[in-house]
Amino acid sequence: MSDDFSTFWHNNERASALFYDLLARAEQDAYDDDFLAQLAAYRETGGDAAHADIFAAQYLLTNGDAENAVICAERAFHLRPLQAPIFEVLARACKALGRYADALLMQGYTNRLTDVPIAVDDYPHEAITQEALDRLSVVLSHPSFVPLATRASYDPEAGITTMDGLFAGEFLPASQNHHCAYYVGVYAEQGQQGDKAWQLKNIRDAQGVGYFAAGDFVFDLMRAQRAPGAAHIELAPGQEVVLPIIGTVLPAVGVCQPQQIHVRSASVDEPGWLNVATPNFYRLRETTDFSSDHAFLVGPPIQIGHHPRRRRLVLNILVDALPWEIVGSCFAEMMPQTARFFARGLIFNQQFSVSEYTYPSLATIETGLYPHHSKMFHDKIPVELSPDIATISERARDHGYATAQLMGFGMGLYDGCMRGYDRLIAAMYRTPAYEGTERIIRHLDGMPDADHFIYFHTADAHPWPAPLFQQAATVQASLPLAARMTDEIHAPHSPYLRPSPINQASFRYGVRSTDRALGTLFSYLEEHYAPEEYLVNLYSDHGVSIFSPTPYIVDSPLTHTAWMMRGAGIPEGVITEELTSTADIHPTIAHLLGFPGDADVDGVLPRVLGGSGRDVSFSNSLYPGKPYFLAVRSASHTLCLETEEPVHTDGTVDLARANVAIYPREHERERGYEIDDPALRAFFYPRARDFLRGIASNGETFSPLKES
Questions:
Q1: In which region does residue 670 sit, left (phi positive, over 0), alpha (psi from -120 to 50) or beta (all else)?
Q2: What would the pLDDT profile of 430-458 be if each residue is shown by its tens digit?
Q3: Bridge partners of 561?
Q4: Which of 74, 30, 29, 34 is nearest to 54 (CA)?
Q5: How far is CA 432 from CA 161, 195, 412, 545, in A?
Q6: Of 220, 260, 400, 531, which is most buried by a Cβ count within 10 Å?
Q7: Could you report the per-residue pLDDT of 309-365, keeping only the tens digit for each?
Q8: Any bridge partners for residue 77, and if so which?
Q9: Rounded to whole angstroms, how far apart are CA atoms 26 and 640?
Q10: What distance in Å separates the CA atoms of residue 569 and residue 565, rounded to the nearest whole number?
Q11: CB distance 110 to 116 below 8 Å
């Protein structure tokens, strides 16, 4: 890389030439000694490690060493998973080793990337188990919408077939990174016995279930273990827990009674009803036995009692699509209840999201890692988060907190970003703040004596494209007719929505609704907790495009987001102008809660809280199939980078021909405001290059797979 900063990016031409020589040899199946020599030269000259391991795996497999081919290919998968050649060679190698379930999984990935059909004609029938099909179903599904799934089935005549469906009344496929599998139940607070479970049972295989039936259905997912009619809960003297138990019997009038459960302890010996598919809670103060004529599910015991190393309550509130660029200048006017509460806390005025939409942004918040480091950037294909990466919820659970997502979307379980939460109440889109507020209050009223780590994700303010989502009736009824009829007929996805009166009115009403609900929640906290007993953290994942006359996918309205904190360890009445990032939320929470160990993250602790802070923030759009965009912001200037060619499925792009310019912050990407200054290049170029190290492709791409 040039160090005079006259050119932003130089590819490694020697490595690229060797890559394409190896690719040509591989396409001719010329896996000989010359191939090995070229591969060694490629590694020596600094070639891409994942590419080198793919070539090595192909060489080894061709030469009969399937075992070591798997080792090399899995190493490449860990480095950069979404590459079709990895899946192709792993499928063949695993099959050669008799690992048919793993081979099937790799074929599923290939199918998602390239549409190459899944072929199992020469697989033993007994190898295609239901467990293997469930794992395949996850790979074929959208990672943002758990428990919706593309369900795979097998027939010896037809092979693998798929249909839209969901996981319901069953466990999600187990992962080696989950210490206990999640059971997919229903949220049925004070509901009629079995009504939601009956609905779920009858819609699970219905055509259009994902869009029409399950889109606003509220699921209750909980880690659980199946008890075959009996469970023994051993408690130490003085120990107290709240135990969730889920019933499995769906009652039917005149046919089947609801499930009964018998509870026996030193002080209680009584029968009772057990609601189906939804948690039933039992507060235990002594060793207790549960029994039933039918199986039931036992969730993780929630430990009662406060420990001085913990806060009584940690509440993380994600207000989806809350743009500080728009709201920050009129915060007290648009969100008076929220502004009042955080006036006694800390507000970050220069917070920027790393990504422009929820899926990668949520992963960054939970892991503290940029998307190209966590590998969580492709919202169409689930790739599991490495077990070496500790999410903030996992660290909280390990610290003894009771972890729960009491409102949120269904993302984060197929890929593992939310694997630290023992319970997740999830809906695909409908997440009104007033309902979330009530859930949290009820949760805390029931267990005021536990130490809670709660995640609350609401999207009242999020703009949605018509006609997929109905605008709030309040907005429809209040707008003049001309403004009411400004929905886009052919609306793009949310980050590309254009300004219109109805979009802007819906956003403003959503912000007011969110604030009204949060005001109730904040009043509850102030009545029931002292400030030193809680940590409240409110942030957003991205902004909106609907106020930008000339939208730019990483512009300030889309990436200048909200972040504010109040409670233990937080200075009171401070508004800071230091640059922060969504990647900083994880290490900040970890620091304030005293989590042991230093996680290897991209985020930093802000200076206002005693950390090193940052001198630039990064916002990028790393979306396969679309051009790559990057904004690197300092306090006064912004480096803007964009490519003409699209991002590859593996999250890389050729940067040699990228357009790069530096602007004043107040005139980002405005023609005529480009600044060609050696000092600014010397400041920005090294920082941007370092960030892009895992994104640059060096101009290297594998040939598309061909159907065999």
A1: beta
A2: 999 999 999 999 999 999 999 999 999 99
A3: 323, 351
A4: 74
A5: 37, 22, 19, 21
A6: 220
A7: 999 999 999 999 999 999 999 999 999 999 999 999 999 999 999 999 999 999 999
A8: none
A9: 38
A10: 10
A11: yes
What is the DSSP code (8-state) at residue 488? Answer: -
Written as six digits, the tokens of 429 are: 């889109």
Strand residues in 550-689 grouped as ranges (E): 560-561, 563-567, 574-581, 617-621, 627-633, 637-646, 659-664
pLDDT tens, residue by residue, 143-171: 999 999 999 999 999 999 999 999 999 99
The reported pLDDT for the residue numbered 444 is: 99
3-state secondary structure 523-590: HHHHHHCCHHHEEEEEECCCCCCCCCCCCCCCCHHHHEECEEEEECCCCCCEEEEEEEEHHHHHHHHH
CATH architecture, domain 313-621: 3-Layer(aba) Sandwich (3.40)
Tell me: pLDDT of 2 over 70.
no
In degrees, rounded to 5, the angle at the alpha carbon of residue 461 between the alpha carbons of residues 350 and 373 is: 50
Please tell me whether the peptide bond between 147 and the residue prior to it is cis, using omega within 30 degrees of 0: yes
Q: Give residue-wise pLDDT tens across range 211-231.
A: 777 778 999 999 999 999 999
Which residue has 């199986």 as its token pair?
Answer: 295
Provide the CB-side half-sphere exposure for 56 (13 A, CA).
22
Q: Do 314 and 595 meet the contact criterion of CB atoms below 8 Å apart?
A: no
**Interhelix angle 49-62/84-96, nearest 10 degrees:** 30
Start-to-end Cα distance in the chain? 40
- Cα–Cα dist 347/323, whole Å: 14
What's residue 622's pLDDT? Answer: 99
| Average of per-residue pLDDT values in the chain | 96
User: Helix 130-139 and helix 100-114: axis angle, to 10°?
Assistant: 30
Q: 269 has which bridge partners?
A: 264
* Number of C-beta neighbours around residue 44 at 10 A: 11
- pLDDT at 377 > cutoff 60: yes
How far apart CA 595 and CA 587 sit, in angstroms, is 9
**Phi/psi of residue 592, nearest 5 degrees:** -65, -30
Instruction: Dig out the tokens for 558 from the structure.
Output: 């889309």
**C-beta of residue 677 within 8 angstroms of C-beta of residue 5:** no
Pair of tokens at residue 316: 């993380």
At 150, is the secondary structure helix, strand, or coil? strand
Separation between Cα atoms, residue 654 and residue 18, nearest integer Å: 17
Please determine, for residue 543, whether its predicted confidence score (pLDDT) is greater than 60. Answer: yes
DSSP state of 212: I
DSSP annotation of 696: B
Using DSSP bridges, classify how beta strands 241-247 and 560-561 pair: parallel, antiparallel or unpaired.
unpaired
Question: In this structure, are residues 290 and 246 in contact, taking their beta carbons and an 8 Å threshold?
Answer: no
pLDDT at 707: 52
pLDDT in tens, 669-692: 999 999 999 999 999 999 999 999
Contact call for residues 147 and 167 (beta carbons, < 8 A): yes
Residue 608 CB partners (closer than 8 Å, separation 6+): 346, 571, 574, 576, 578
